[in-house]
Amino acid sequence: MGGRGDQRGRRGIVLLEVLLAAAILATAVVALTRLQEAALRREGTSATVGAASRAVERLLTETRSGGKLTEGIEQGEVRGLPGGTYRRQVLGLVRSPAGWVYRVRLRVTWPDRAGEQELTMESYVLEAPEDAVRP
Description:
By secondary structure, this protein is of the alpha+beta class. 46% of the residues lie in helices and 33% in strands.
């Protein structure tokens, strides 16, 4: 017993097992590739948001150290952020004995695969009067 028919049947089962294992492996490789692509996309998005955040910080620092503030809106391109633009709005809120209090709103926008993205920050700046004694 156990002649050639059994051996052919066994070889057929082994071949089927190998094909099934190859299909499972191929499915796993495709899934891992898609996960890696998604991770790389998120990493790129994270880097872009980081660049936008640094741009907002830089613009706010320029606003604070740029001398006398004037009310109005200024727009321009953002350095270090491809396709990025900014909009800086300065609004004088109140004059106090300590000086003018200004509201500064900064908005940075940039193109992305999902459309235009934006990061907005608002801050308040106290500008001392010109006759104030500075340290």
